[in-house]
Amino acid sequence: MFVFIAILLSLAVCFIMLYASSKRKASFQQKYDLVTDLRNLVTLCRQHRSASHYLLYYGNPKSHEILILEEKMYTTMKILIGKAHFDNKPIYRILFSKLSKLINEWEHMTISQNQMSHGRIIRHCVFLIDEVVLAWLVESQRTELGDDYNLSWHQINDSLESLTKFRIAIQDVNEKDGLTNLKPHAKSMITRLNQLSLISPLAIASPACSLLCKQLEDLSNSDELEFTREQLYKMSTDASLVIFNTYDFLLSDIAESIYVPLPKLALSI
Fold it and tell me: Where are the domains of the chain?
């Protein structure tokens, strides 16, 4: 009888452990899928911003390529709503509403409005990624990873804040004191980009980033505006690329440490 009871207890313990492991794996997979799909949405939004900027600048109507991008954005957003936890679905529906509004209205925006509207959607996605990662780190009980992530996240967020201010200043650069107002934000961007080297040295060591830092340095030291608004927007796009490549490096490193590596993006963000 004692042996029988011991066997039952062992089986019960095994069953509980297997159930807990299965539940943990399912939770990890859901968070992994959310991060992956949000990364994809950020990539699509950045591609859409670039394409729509081009069309607005040259006064062209919607192209077949941008329609395909918009369809992919809709599809990815619907997938995200389907995968989100029931309690979080309203947050993703709000993002879907903002995304739909952007897709329907960008043709009637100015270039600066288009830049800022896309930026708000992208930042919304990034903050959702951050929420998922923080919950993932707590669940995995990887305290040391959480501390490192929080420190790096603050640097990423500060860089995004500086980039937003830089973009806002660009729209008024041809006005009185426009260059004077822009120069401090150019200096701030240099500082932020250099700080990102602590997270991903390769992001700063690239020739493209070196050129960007030189352009920002020239801008911050210039007494006359030597760049067109289009060139300045290109600089902001290049800075955005460095920031998101750095953040993606951070996300990939954490996902690999906790679960499995994130899939490679079709195009670098």
Answer: 31-141, 142-260
